[in-house]
């Protein structure tokens, strides 16, 4: 292993499922070629005493919702890269059939994305449900999403019959496909919203939380899990936010190993009492402290499988906080702070282990979405996507340094402790000390149901 | 206790919660005045060796759906009386506010009903929900019904938000009010119906069963129970039909004593393979054998609390079996065979005890709906509603003998063993050997939330 | 019903399983001959507004442990009668075969006991286990007891193998027989006792509690329930005392309806911090407040089936409190305060209903031990054992008024509110205002496995 | 990585927790120095297409029970090595204090053992329990064993009080110590044995199974788990054999992550109907087919954590099958067939994955007993203990080829498919095609509680 392209020397390598090893990493042709030591390479990074994680996979982002899709492909994956994210899973959807126009969308990523990218497609119509086999076969897309509660005016709700039929379709295809579900009860939400609208012409972030109560999420989780148990498909709950849902998922998961749970780094960091006010308006909304603590506990107890961001590129001009609780738009950028918030609130403040971080932020997203072991670990043969971190580095967040097209951050002005100091993508050092230092070429990740 | 109005001598008196006692019953002023012996009365019935049950309470009938309301008040309560039913609970509903017009409906019962009668009112609109307190206060109606799945074209579905709000309203009022729920998932039903309509232009009774699958009921049971657990109200599931629902209710009831379960005597007697074919078309549909057995087991295990009929006056001309599976109307008359089917299939065929029969067909309906101990037991002070049975009497069912305006029976031509031989209503012998022998004056039962 | 032997007029009659009825009770030949009214009798008791319970059945007493058996038959049943107890279940045991010598013991009761009496026999040897069928058949004894932990030096521990074999023997005989178990783990007790003996030469009542920790009882409850679940026999836990046991029994009972739970009126009234100190030394020991509250809660939740006393005639001379924690003898008399403590602590202080009191202190003991409906209810044909109570009567306890040969009470000096004011045994008024006013003739109750 | 001591080229490397990677392994100084490729070494093994597992760790063997301890150290570890086992955990015990004489035992291993070895010590007396801290500190022994049921005449039973106290001792020390438990109910066993002795003077292997019924194990599992839940210690059940225990452990483990379960390769391969007859006499006994299937299912469901052998060197002369069911001695050698039986019955017959095999036979034993990641995985820095297997190799078992001092095998004459073809110990090729080809130097593994 002399004359590798790159050798990272003397790091503390965090291998999910194995532990932390003090070892060199050799890279050739964009892939990890060897672990061990002592290696020599044409380039060397001395990582003495630094922890090295597999590149972070954010399984849940959105692009092009409020801005230009191609432009956001560029800005948002760059923001991810600055924060140690090397792969993103992006939700796309609309009322029309996907095949064959979506191949155009895939083609657009070329030369634009600096992280690798894969897509999840929203299934909203019977036609789209029919397309699933060929979307898998011909486009290499193996994950699909159903909105039990959509966004009023934007995304329609899916009724139980259609939900269940889609589960059955997935179950027939097998465990290579995974169905993602946004779990809330639309009727409960609508009722609470209407009740509040009678008495509040405007409201705070905490009031917004009351428009979609915690039990609306828990109920939907119970119902979707029930249907999935009957149908036999793999089911993935996106952005779980409430303590009540976690409690119920603990029981559900112990009986059904095909159910997976995602939360987000913002839900682990922010409550409805945030000083950011309506800038933090989101769907589902931020919850009270007890839910944040329940989510962290669920990470320790293996109830949560993955952590995403639900990143939406959002600007003050679009968000329009000045329109008040009812008028402001939901969403926020979060890719640039994804890993730092977990290092700060999880590792440094709550003693979460780095092995756990690597598991929930890299290995399990890769496994669940069919990318493992190309992604998700540090092993010979895997893509050389790596992030070197400094647990003691403290930075006061300024959104201007985060690379996103968004012009605010939920964490602006807050000091976070624990940051990536180098991001290596496909064997190339692309970020150093939060600055781009190389040209990263991301690619579309075609998957198969094996 | 000499010179009672009536003394029933030497019967085996089945007292729910106590057991079977060989004792005389004395009646004065329409009420039971004494138990014991030896009493003498101006009239005497020698019941030596016969079992005497408290008058059967059918908590679930409909009147006036396909025929004239006032006319059916007369014919159907008469049919009940012939079969040992002395009190009925009748579901009424419509889109308009109930108050004050429903007092007219109550007034209509006078002189028409030969059993006692109480009403449950369907809550379908926010206005009706608002009326609840005064319906209780001024009309003495304390039970209300929500249709999670209505009847397409006739009764609208209730959405979860409205369901939950109504539960909360009930919880605030307290345990004197009870919310009845028709539990099915309307979207699952609609989806299965649509799928079947694509492939079947007509179908059998068994095919009809596939349009509303068992798990549609189970899911709704789980969801309504979840909401009731949160809200804290008393909840009563009408006409549970599927083994799957029973399984789930066993767990639910052990955790929440405020949940009650009704099944019907037809669901305990008939399967989807009935030789009656589409004449037995019903909503929910008849199920397979395993569900019938699960319901009987649930009776032994205290999962089922009450047995009703879901009686609808139905005629061949209205039912229109000739229109096939999709066109025939649902429903059937069942009051006249209510007790005989339970005596035949339960007591004689499966060894269900008469104490259990008295509990599920009289005491618990009375307790749950606020009529106990005026109704539901045999004790000094209770109304003298009694039914004397002959467990060995075998009769081949002929609907013409059952007193209903309906012109068929699910059991026509079938021999049932175990029949009432005398019905005593308010202390008066009104039915003897399936013939009316007295003029029975039923009354509206006004209830309060105590 | 004119000229009954006795008529109790206008009382509020508490009928377990039915409710509270305002009705007269007629008595003839020592049995209840009629309920209702208006009756006239040769004797009449005007009970206007007073609650009338079925005679209390204490299913758990001991006689002749420290004193003379025949003498205690006289004094202790008299004490019971003064307190409203009309039937006692007495545990007897010894190393020798019971048959045929135990018929002598039965014969001794004649003319001595003033309550009715039935016996439970301890099964300690294989020979005794073999005797069970003929003890049932020839002596009419259908309940037997196993000590998982005996009393060191007095009663041997039963090992699991023997316990399980006895359960199997019972299961074969059927549900007419019931096995009572003293549930504690003898090895845990011995270990904790030995540890404490190393450090304490004497100790308080609270220290005594530490010699038999709560979990020693819980573990034994779990183990015996496991064996009973396998064998299929009916199992009755005597004197359950700890919150931990209750918690575990809630789960166990929901899965196995053949398991029954007794607690005692002292365990519902007294904690290890009692001012009576070592006078309250007992096996199992008194517990902390949380256990007392858990027991009351278990009464409301139907986890506890019966309430006994575990009465042992005890005197200061025998108890020898002056010998300290290790030397004092266990036990106390409790029959005379049995009902008053439940009326005081349960009905008056915690709102427990009188129907519940009648169920746990009369109906269920009768049902479980095969005496129902001769005992345990107020119905035509039942024995006329009745107790009329005054819920407002307050008395400061003085053991000298309680009729026992014991010369102290756990409640001496304490004011209890709620007392029996008349006890009627076999139709005869025998106690009035805590004074014997008639000659009560108790009898041995022979049972069968029906 | 040129000139490594050894390079294993082109194998399919099974890394528990990661997956199967096609990669080279470089070894230096007895440890794995690098994974990846292409490496060159002074020695090279071409493993193209062969699976390479981490060296198998058998956590449960016995030495010196019926034969000479030192001699068996030599013969039995050699037998292990031939079968791919590179580390053994050996149970030792006796009535005397261990400290300081056990350092002699440790010293004896030097030059004798060809696998690495660690010891578990039986705790049978209070003195031994007191020694635990210094046995950890000074001898590096961190695992201890309690026999709830001993071997009559050889090993005494431990009573619950002592068991619980030892659990508490362990809980205070922390999660670095682990308590192993032989879980059977001695009283149930004694009772069943005595019953059978009354009727059988001799019996078959299946009869022997009846002397220690399945529920004897399940009950002990429940009881020990209950005590461990209270105390808070880590608990390891050795040699679980019965379906009933598995069922109960599924529930227990979901609530308590500190409970671990071992089964043995013989229990996964042999039933009580084995043609080997009393040669297979064992404690606990072999069970019926359903238990074997339940154990395999438990492996798939993560209820079983580790697989051992419970190897006892046994000879026909000592076993004395001719003495019949009651007289024959228990035990058998199983080290040499340990991995082949799992490859045959698990991988080849039931589709168990090799990643699962590596996890249960190497990683988890290492983790649970404090040897990870020195042992239990294939990673830079780990000991270079490796076993290369051929899943298609079929061999008819002949105990004469297995290297043990035992002179029979449970599998003599049976064809097993799936065998190790090379064993590498500390970087040295020591076994090739079931022949010793090198001098393996095993060592005592000193552990600490971290
Ligand atoms: Zn969403
Ligand atoms: Zn999203
Ligand atoms: Zn309905
Ligand atoms: Zn209906
Ligand atoms: Zn006891
Ligand atoms: Zn006792
Ligand atoms: Zn063992
Ligand atoms: Zn062993």
UniProtKB/TrEMBL annotation, chains A, B, C, D:
Superkingdom in the source lineage = Bacteria
Keywords, comma-separated and alphabetical: Hydrolase
The molecular function GO annotations come to: hydrolase activity, acting on carbon-nitrogen (but not peptide) bonds, in cyclic amides
- Name-wise, this protein is Dihydroorotase-like cyclic amidohydrolase
Q: Which cofactor does it need?
A: Zn(2+)
Q: From which organism does this entry originate?
A: Desulfoscipio gibsoniae DSM 7213
* Organism ancestry: Bacteria, Bacillati, Bacillota, Clostridia, Eubacteriales
InterPro entries hit by this protein: Amidohydro-rel, Metal-dep_hydrolase_composite, Metal_Hydrolase, Metallo-dep_Hydrolases_sf
Which residue ranges does the record assign to the Amidohydrolase-related domain?
51-430
GO terms for CC?
A: cytosol
